[in-house]
Amino acid sequence: MDYVKLINCMRCGMCLPACPTYKETFLETASPRGRVALVRKVQEGELDQSEQLLEYLSLCLDCQACASACPCGVNAGELVAEFTCERKESRGLGFMEDLILRKLVPHPDRLETSMVPMRIYQKTGLQNLVRKLGILKMFPKQLERMEGLLPDLPDKPLRQEIQVITPAVGQERGTVGFFLGCVMSLIFSDASRATIKLLSSLGYKVITPKSQVCCGAPNMLGGDMAGLKEAAQTNIDIFASYDVDFIVTDCGGCGAELKKYGHHLDGYKSAEIFSGKVRDISQVLALHADQLRAKLKPLPLKVTYHDPCHIAHCQGIRKEPRDLLKLVPALEYRELEAADACCGSAGTYNIERPEMSDLILKRKLDTIQATGAKILVTSNPGCLLQLKKGLADHLPDVKIMHLTEILDLSMNGQS
Amino acid sequence: MQPSFIKELQNIVGEQYTLTDRESLAVYGYDSTPEIESLPGAVLLPGTAGEVVQIMRLCHGAGVTVTPRGSGTNLSGGSLSGGGVVVQTSRLNRLLEIDEENLTATMEPGLITSALHREVESRGLFYPPDPGSMNISTMGGNVAENSGGLRGLKYGVTADYVMGLEAVLADGQLLRSGGKVVKDVAGYSLNPLLVSSEGTLGFFTGITVKLIPKPQGKITMLAHFPVLQDAALAVSAIIAAKVIPATLEFLDKVTIKCVEDYAHVGLPLDVDAVLLIEVDGHPVVIAEEAAAVAEICKKHRCSFFQTAKDADEALKLAAARRTALSALARLKPTTILEDATVPRSCIAAMLKVIQDSARKHNVTIGTFGHAGDGNLHPTCLTDERDTDEIKRAHAAFEEIFDAAISMGGTITGEHGVGLAKKKYLPKLVGESGIRVMRGIKNAFDPKGILNPGKIF
């Protein structure tokens, strides 16, 4: 942990109004400034790493809205995440963490197999029965929440279906590597299919290596830096064996992590090259706005856009997704108030801190309702899961779509 | 703090709103002031004015001190406790009324300043004070410190808008002063005493402020000056030409670079200073004023003069200026900010003093501020671990304060004396000033319960 990064915080409080948990609690311990102070006081030996202290830090969503708000360049969210990761690392991986982070997540085939029972559970009608009978009430609350978040699963994960090479349509302008996010491939495969289709219709040959593994973000959360570095190394080697102009992802979380490989494997040239090629899908599509516009057909819909933290705060991308939506003829774009405020999903936060997550989600739903939009667009699987459930429960008229899904819809001329 | 006493506090505000764990106390031990911290004994978050009365009664009886705190953005150590109870106003944050017939707004002390702006502006009204921290600062804190802001030149400061106050005195008694009346000469004027009392005379529970009609239009301009002194002379010339801009802000080269690094609003990196100027009011009038401002800046050798093309660009420029203090912390970990203020005609002379002191003591000082008010913010960029440099920084500021006083200025224009400037106050107000202030404190709070150790 870099001490200078901690003392750079001059406690001006500019981060306070940006922080979702401070807005809910008005507690200094639940603020970015407070969290940096707590970590600093541990480093200085003034405070112990007490359970209470870790409990306070664990309220952080790591949405990094504080980093966007901080004029002096302190990233409180990242500092807390690093501190927590280091602490978990020094304790060593527990049985469950080892099982999930080492035996499951780095192996896409095992991860996919693990989802099979869930698919059977849905397809056989067992899910309806379980929900009707309220059986989940008998299990820990977290399980019920997890089950509630799960949308209808596709028949097959995208990784199993997609060809390694999707040729460009018409004149080939270049080659991109496509990074399949675990959740995108397992749950939102339709969106990723649309992503690949958009890229190929704009003249890109799309290579989707099947041996790629999870980006490693879960390892960071679980305190497994070694696992993260291993995942990074694997992905760097795999994509290096193809000659690609960009490495494209349609998952905000993966994009943010992939762009940090160069930082994680400091001094390792190919990691730097890899990270330098990573683009969010919106960045690539925005390069070809004119060509894309010519392909789009009218969609007379009222649409708003929610900025995923991992795209707006971690990658600084705000303009491109909005510009792309505005390309669609007849689409009425309505800006969302506090569009870049977290939706409360934040990895597994909505399962681990359900009460805070629900408060944050409610704020988001209120702003969505105020726009009068009937379609909510976003581009990160965590947000998609959280908001899909939130909308279904509270605003059933509003549908949620990934950015590439709505563009694909417009390209197909369906409404 | 005794467990039995804590229990009594919990009985008043509830266990959930009584913080005594080490971690909470640690993070309520600071505000935005560099170099000073002070651990409180407990932190309370009352939800009603009635609870504040009970807290004051209990603490008064037990001889425990009470320090009011808003969002902790104080820049003079005013919200640090000295070991007593810190009472945070965040739950007392309701806007109680906007009275469009009397043009007033009444609120609780924890209301965020910019939330008040939003509400009144949606009704075509205007509350001008806009301190740099307005997106998180509270109205209670603004009143206690008599906060200024970017629009002070034309519209004045918080004190110019406070009409009525309800305050809980140290012994728990309620004091009401002023109200919605425009004229009131009944007895001593207590409002001006309570405004800028820095939490030492009473705990505000209700605030009534004056509103004015929202200006119909505004024009935002930016002038680049290759030579620092030219910018300062242009400021005096604009005022001498009988143009009173709402905002007349100055940023020097160091500040420009830091702000641009963060905000990316297109500030020039190759000039010594910029002036950010905003005129507001009737569209015909402001067009004339903007032309006059442009003329004066050109006469004072500005190399480039830019008018914001739309409201969005104007907002971005003003927002960027608000980040100046924090953005300066990009260069060094510790920033020591001062707000010495001089008569506005002395701004060029003051800038020279700041530059000379920085050179003499070999420290880096970035300067920005409300040039039109004569209120500059020389900010020393340093590192708290470098004790020698910190010493030199304080020596430089001592000179700057002396110069400000000798020009007929003051040691603090808007941040308050608090703990940070205590030792300079006698120089400014003299023995008689301190004696009278002590007498006032004694009349309000003879036991010294409210915000101990501040001001003198």
Automatic annotation (TrEMBL), chain A:
Tell me which EC number(s) this protein carries.
Answer: 1.1.99.14
Tell me the keywords, alphabetical order: 4Fe-4S, Electron transport, Iron, Iron-sulfur, Metal-binding, Repeat, Transport
State the free-text cofactor note: Binds 2 [4Fe-4S] clusters.
Q: Which reaction does it catalyse?
A: glycolate + A = glyoxylate + AH2; (R)-lactate + A = pyruvate + AH2
Gene3D superfamilies (UniProt xref): Alpha-helical ferredoxin
Q: What class of enzyme is it?
A: oxidoreductase
Q: Which domain of life is it from?
A: Bacteria
Task of the protein:
Component of a complex that catalyzes the oxidation of glycolate to glyoxylate.
Q: Which Pfam families match?
A: CCG, Fer4_8
Q: What SUPFAM superfamilies is this protein classified in?
A: alpha-helical ferredoxin
User: What are the residue boundaries of the 4Fe-4S ferredoxin-type domain, all occurrences included?
Assistant: 1-29, 50-82
Q: Which cofactor does it need?
A: [4Fe-4S] cluster
- The keyword Iron-sulfur belongs to this UniProt entry's keyword annotation: yes
What species is this protein from? Answer: Pelotalea chapellei
Entry protein name:
Glycolate oxidase iron-sulfur subunit
Automatic annotation (TrEMBL), chain B:
Q: Which cofactor does it need?
A: FAD
**Which segments constitute the FAD-binding PCMH-type domain?**
36-214
Q: Which UniProt keywords apply?
A: FAD, Flavoprotein, Oxidoreductase
Concerning Gene3D superfamilies, the annotation shows:
3.30.465.10, 3.30.70.2740, Vanillyl-alcohol Oxidase, Chain A, domain 4 (1.10.45.10)
| Protein name from the UniProt record | FAD-binding protein
Q: Does this UniProt record's set of keywords contain Zinc?
A: no
> Organism's domain of life?
Bacteria
Pfam families documented for this protein:
FAD-oxidase_C, FAD_binding_4
